[in-house]
Amino acid sequence: TYVYLQLLTNILECCKCHNKFKVGMSGPPGYRKIVYRCKTKFSHWFDKKKPDCEMRTFEVDNLNERVWKRIQDVSSNPELIENSLYESCVANADVLRNYQEQAKRIERQIQEFKSYKENAVSLRVRNKINEEEFEKQMSELENEHQLLKRNKRELEIKIEHIKRMTSGSIGKEAILRYAKFLARSGKRLDTAQRREVLEAFVSRIVIQTNGEFEIVFMFPVDSEIPSVESPLNPPFTSPYLNDSLGHTRVLVGGRATR
Question: 36 in helix, strand or coil?
């Protein structure tokens, strides 16, 4: 028997098919071991009609320890974390400008709808179009108008998230303080506690066929991070940015990139 929810279940990602990994057994009777197996390969094993994947399996205990050691290595390097946060802010500034330009274009389009509606009314008054055509045009215009307003609101939410992220490294001190705790006490955490840490700070871990991996960290938008004194209680509840906004990639070799 084995525990289905291991440290890296649904966090580990295949570099070949980009599917997640789940836990299974491998090996002949008497020599079976618990492994991580790509879900695509797992599905093909049960149904040969489904697509297969070239990715191999990885022994659970070995990979768990290697990943956790890497987490602690990163936690022990405040300079790396600060640089990663800075790079995220710089990249977010470019994204912010792009979103602001999109929002301005949408606002101009929204303003133009007033003249479109006035033109439709004018055509109807002068009997250039019948009532049915008029109603159809007004309905289409209103639908497009509402879609633009929704798109504008979504952009405004994204813009607000980025502004919070770039307004002076919000939460940086809290992140560095928690990293210090992990570097000092991370070895004492059990699998469930380590899993909580990964779910809070890691977006995904992409693994290659040779066993090398890269960890994509996601830093909280604000400082709602568990205290050093009680790191896992209460549960992590911080809001997070999505991949395009707030994630920082830290390679296994130690070089931080976007």
Answer: strand
Distance CA 65, CA 68 (A): 5
Q: How far apart are CA 17 and CA 53, in angstroms?
A: 7
3-state secondary structure string across 194-213? HHHHHHHHEEEEEECCCCCE
Rounded to whole angstroms, how far apart are CA atoms 56 and 209?
6
Going through the chain in order, the beta strands assigned E by DSSP cover 12-14, 21-26, 33-38, 58-59, 202-207, 213-218, 247-251, 256-257
Any idea what the Cα angle at residue 32 is, between residues 27 and 38, rounded to 5°?
A: 65
pLDDT surpassing 90 at residue 67 = yes
Per-residue pLDDT of 125-138, as tens digits, reads 888 888 888 888 88
| Report field, pTM of the whole predicted structure over 0.70 | no
* Peptide bond connecting 78 to the previous residue in cis, omega within 30 degrees of 0: no
Q: How many residues does the chain have?
A: 258
Angle formed by the axes of helices 172-185 and 60-75, to 10°?
130
How far, in Å, are 32, 36, 45 from residue 29 at the CA level?
6, 18, 18
**179, 196, 183, 257: which is closest to 11 by C-alpha?**
196
Q: Is 18 helix (H, G, I), strand (E, B) or coil?
A: coil
